[in-house]
Amino acid sequence: MDTLIDNPKTKVVVCCGSGGVGKTTTAAALALRAAERGRTTVVLTIDPARRLAQALGLEELGNVPKRVELEGFEPAGELWAMMLDMRRTFDDMIIAHSDPDRAEELLASPFYQTVSTSFSGTQEYMAMEKLGQLVADGEWDLIIVDTPPSRSALDFLDAPKRLSNALDTRLIKLLTSPARAGGWGVRKAFTAGLAMATKAVSTVIGGQLLTDASAFMQAFNSTAGGFKERAAKTAELLRSPGTSFLVVAAPEPDALREASYFVERLSDESMPLQGLVANRTHPVLADLPATKALAAAEALERDGNGPLAAAVLRLHADRVTLDQREQRLLARFTRAHPGVPVVGVPALPSDVNDIAGLRVIGERLSGNGHAR
Fold it and tell me: What are the residue boundaries of the ArsA/GET3 Anion-transporting ATPase-like domain, all occurrences included (predicted)?
């Protein structure tokens, strides 16, 4: 990991994985370690949960990068953090790529109020937009992205294609045609082209919303072209040598199945996969087989001596059994994906919720601190 984050050619690291595997903690720990080692780093979370802010000791994060003040030590670089605000990013995109009058018209549109918060895929589109903005700013050596905790974490890979397809549908083309007679021309075109489907839509959402949608799409048409172009450039960035993907998983069957999905999807998309982070592993601390530990515990218990030592031996036997199970699961993953490097990050005694804990995780990610 140190080789990855120290490399000046590494510009973007994307952490992906299912929920509950420590992905946000991994992203924050990597960002902190990169800052410690001299890089100006920003970590962006797309996950609306506030775990990242809590781990960094901040009350909240906003839609613009915020400098993280690190007490107790002085990093060689800088650490910044932010959380994606989907609506704010959409608003900023409209303002940046429209003239003032057009931007005001778009932002005031009732249709926009709905699209900007609930349209399928909007979060992924805005994630692409924000990542593109951060790269274009050129203020950071390294950008680390913490994606949502589900398979939809990779939906932003499809954002350019999905957006282009959405804007090229027959429905959208009808909406962007000039409205005549207060919207009657739009409804007439719907009737001619979509017949019963249009009747159903009109019944549910009403003619006024169709008119609002037409007005919005006509105003948005010129802006959308630029958005598609920028999203395509960001997609190209994600496939470039300067980007690396890390799949984060726990050593559990369900999490590793999800990790296999991510690995296969990234391979299909020709994305640069760096490896798998097996988080919260339980390596043994002593070279004593479980059978011998249990036999020794039973002997102590029969003699009525050393109850504490017997309990420790039984705990050790349980730990050995757990470690062997995890190793079997990881070996199965490696057999299925032999070209994917794996780094194990041993579990800590308690949850990571401060800078000190993140530094320990960073050390273990680097191969120190008993990582396997």
Answer: 10-282
Residues 6+ apart with CB under 8 A from 141: 8, 11, 34, 39, 40, 41, 77
333 occurs within a structural domain: no
Other Cβ atoms less than 10 A from the Cβ of 65: the count is 20
Surface-to-core class of residue 100, CB atoms within 10 Å of its CB (0-12 exposed, 13-18 middle, 19+ buried): exposed
Domain count, the chain: 2
Mean pLDDT over 279-294 rounds to 88
**What is this structure's pTM?**
0.82
Domain extent for 31: 2-281+338-365
DSSP letter at 169 equals: S
Same structural domain for residues 11 and 68? yes
Question: Over the stretch 328-365, which tens digit does the pLDDT of each residue have?
Answer: 999 999 999 999 999 999 998 888 888 989 999 999 99
Do the domain assignments include residue 371? no
* Length of the chain as a residue count: 372
Q: For 212-256, write each residue's pLDDT tens digit.
A: 666 676 666 666 667 677 777 888 888 898 999 999 999 999 999
State the Cα–Cα distance between residues 189 and 310, nearest whole angstrom: 82
